[in-house]
Amino acid sequence: MAASGKKTDGRKDIRDVIIVGAGCSGLAAAVYCGRFLMRTLVLGETIGGVIITTDVVENYPGFIRLTGTELAKKLEEHARDYKSVEIREEKVIEVVKNGNIFKAVSEEGAYYGRAVIISSGTEHKKLDVPGESELANRGVHYCALCDGALYQDRPVAVVGGSDSAAKEALVLSQWASRVYMIYRGDKIRPEPVNYERVIANRKIEIISQANVMKMNANEKGFLKSVTLDKPYKGMKEFPVDAAFVAIGHIPLTGFARGLGLKTNDKGEILIDRNAHTNVPGVFAAGDVVDTSFKQAITGAAEGVLAAYSAYQHVSDSRVL
Amino acid sequence: MAASGKKTDGRKDIRDVIIVGAGCSGLAAAVYCGRFLMRTLVLGETIGGVIITTDVVENYPGFIRLTGTELAKKLEEHARDYKSVEIREEKVIEVVKNGNIFKAVSEEGAYYGRAVIISSGTEHKKLDVPGESELANRGVHYCALCDGALYQDRPVAVVGGSDSAAKEALVLSQWASRVYMIYRGDKIRPEPVNYERVIANRKIEIISQANVMKMNANEKGFLKSVTLDKPYKGMKEFPVDAAFVAIGHIPLTGFARGLGLKTNDKGEILIDRNAHTNVPGVFAAGDVVDTSFKQAITGAAEGVLAAYSAYQHVSDSRVL
Q: What is the nearest CA distance from B197 to chain A, expressed in angstroms?
């Protein structure tokens, strides 16, 4: 009975909800938690989350065009407009459940809450080749829909051969003059329908059995070419204006290992339409969940639904 | 074989997608349809939809505070920013399917599309008593979360006894000095947990077996009282600053009768997490669907998912 709810009664400061992750989803969740007058703590390694790495956001309905940083700032200001919301730039290391109370441990302290919303996002898998990190957002990108329109009538590469990589290539083919899919294997492996689309698309060209070894900058510090491990069309240094790395994402859930959350084979947290996970009191939203089409707006809406469900949960625990 | 796809080949102008309804969901769907370069027609009785009847919107993450009309305008401008999107203020009377092509008939013409997104919204059921329509948004409201914060420390009424009405009363109790639930029946009938909450809430007072017969204005043209069919606390003209009518919604789906869409017992269209309905090529989003927590932001996200799914559908039909 060591983990019973009663043990927590003596704790000084139990918030209604702790939101782990301060990106679009977490901040939108915070807005609604504030509206529900819940005492809310948002903990995030980077306030604003991954959107701040995107130069131009044109796909958050309501804003024709703004920078990722501007959108993040607006969401942050909106969340901070509610007095019951506190936001701290702290990386969460662990979340555990004791009875009905959750404990979130950051690098700077421990916090308690009656509910948890996980909106910790994902990391893009990186190629880990020279030049990649230096050229990030200067020709090296990880999201075709976010950044593809910057390369109107210019040659680009997609690195990867999965279904996601194929979808990135198809999206890019709307803008680019040419899309090279660079894949280490024999044959790209998207879903059949996307495979058909790639093959039917005259702009897309597949470079198989090839690895990108290096990303090369021009004199202005933007990508000018990728170095392959074998020549293609006689060139080992293959010229492209952009390389979209699409070799997968890693959902950031390590800190929640102890909660027993159900995930799919990608490690994404399974949620229902109201952002419930399989663990009572734990809700999830945004890039970390098993939504197939992940956008800032869908993540924000999931955050809102997570806030609603967390409110139900916290109200239930109080009445019952 | 009269309904085979081939019969439609001779038609001059088949769009990729027709969006029925030009509220937040439909306009957000249009933004993404535009991003997917789909030839898109939005048809709506009122561009902007029901949000334009809301004075202050504080719950669309990213905008701390703006009017409903301002938000609608921003979404409309965003959608119009895409050249492949056309928006027409026309009420749709009927949508039918012929083979793989949909025909939408408005009061002004007939339009054809390969996919349809239904975002036609709902109507609030009205009490249909004198004063109600004149005082709309001047004390008479239909959404506690939208408009409740206007009545800080003031007495308000909720008309209705359903679970939704109870939830409206609970939301209002965060702001109002007193919330009167006026219900025609013996005993309000929310879900047990919400019933418990209403009973436990010291601000909420239930006036049962009472009907509102009339809404009365003060000299400035704002609600001052509601007239009951029997006196309560000695008053037939019962003073409140606001009356929130919560006697249900009517999903607007009559035009789609012929499509064979599955709905729940409220008449809401059933969708999955990617806004698919049961009918291939038909997607739905916003207040017209079976989401439990309906907000502008969740409707917008559903619209985005509907656009994504419509894009998949239209691309599939082209390749296959």
A: 7
The answer, yes or no, to whether ipTM is higher than 0.85 is: no
B59 near A CB under 8 A: yes
The question of whether A143 is a catalytic residue gets the answer yes
Residue A148, min C-alpha distance to chain B (Å): 11
Residues of chain B with pLDDT under 50: 1-11, 320
Model-wide pTM > 0.90: no
| B64·A58 Cβ contact <8 A | no
> What is the per-residue pLDDT across A86-118, written as a single tens digit (0 to 9) for each?
999 999 999 999 999 999 999 999 999 999 999
SS3 readout for chain A: CCCCHHHHHHCCCEEEEEEECCCHHHHHHHHHHHHCCCCEEEECCCCCHHHHHCCCECCECCECCECHHHHHHHHHHHHHCCCCEEEECCCEEEEEEECCEEEEEECCCEEEEEEEEECCCEEECCCCCCCCCCCECCCEECCHHHHHHHHCCCEEEEECCCHHHHHHHHHHCCCCCEEEEECCCCCCCCCHHHHHHHHHCCCEEEECCCCEEEEEECCCCCEEEEEEEEEECCEEEEECCEEEECCCEEECCHHHHHHCCCECCCCCECCCCCCECCCCCEEECHHHECCCCCCHHHHHHHHHHHHHHHHHHHHHHHHC
Mark yes or no for CB contact A304/B319 under 8 Å.
no
Specify whether A146 is catalytic.
yes
